[in-house]
Amino acid sequence: MNLPATEELFREDSTLLHCEAVVLAQEEGGGLILDRTVAYPLGGGQAGDAGEIRAGSLSWRFSDTRKSKLHPGAILHLIEGEGPTPETRVTVAIDAPRREAHRRFHTATHLLCALLPYPVDGCSITETTARLDFHTDEAFDKAAIESGLRRLVAEARPVRQRWISEDELDANPGLVRSMSVQPPRGLGRVRVIEVEGVDLQPCGGTHVNNTAEIGALVVTKIEKKSAKTRRVVLGFAQVGAAGSGLSPA
Q: What is the pLDDT of residue 159?
């Protein structure tokens, strides 16, 4: 059975938290495929969304969102047991705090790329941490990185998404920072994220609209993973109990 690609509403507006959809199929293992969704599937280092699918008085919790390997372009909402039957009209609602954390952390990694201009050979973005692995043997200064992040967040720089042609990307190969993941090809265009005056690179993830929305960050770890790899892990910061300082959230 050939299924159409899932319409990815999150690509154009990552603030959308729910949408109406129609069930197309359910793969073995619990992957429910809809004609459209606001749920981002695991990819580009960013974790997938979780949430709930509702049909009338019935509801199904989905614990993760993935790309289908059987149906190119289709997105799986991972549920337990049997889901709604094909052609059922449903509402998809994602976990707002999880999405917000992903948006804030993903944009923060773009700021980190601007502060540390080295090739990236690893990335992970979850609800609680963001990690980038940089291909370099240079030592990193934790205080300098945190200071740079505070400055860029406080500058409240606009964050925009736009599309460029594959020819434009080929003419500017330096836009691609990742050593292991290349932008998808074959569509004739590539989505890029621009942090005004700071960073521009291909990216399919979800982001905030302004760096001020990221909030306070801390560098929780700087680690030497190999002779040529330095890992930086970020966390959100919060005012301590006594209101006297910042601590990891």
A: 98
Same domain? For 128 and 77 the reply is: no
Q: Is residue 2 part of a domain?
A: no
Based on the domain organization, do 32 and 109 belong to the same domain?
no
Q: What is the pLDDT of residue 239?
A: 52
Query: Which residue segment(s) compose the domain that 38 sits in?
Result: 7-94
Ramachandran bin of 8, using left for φ above 0, alpha for ψ from -120 to 50, beta for the remaining angles: beta
Q: How many domains does the chain have?
A: 2
187 with 106, same domain?
Answer: yes
Q: Is residue 176 part of a domain?
A: yes
Kindly state whether residues 194 and 124 are assigned to the same domain. yes
One domain for residues 89 and 104: no
The pLDDT value recorded for residue 181 is 66
User: Which residue ranges in the chain fall short of pLDDT 50?
Assistant: 241-247, 249
Q: What is the pTM assigned to this prediction?
A: 0.91
- Residue 29: per-residue pLDDT: 86
Q: Same domain for 124 and 192? A: yes
pLDDT tens profile 230-243: 999 999 997 553 33
Do 111 and 26 share a structural domain? no
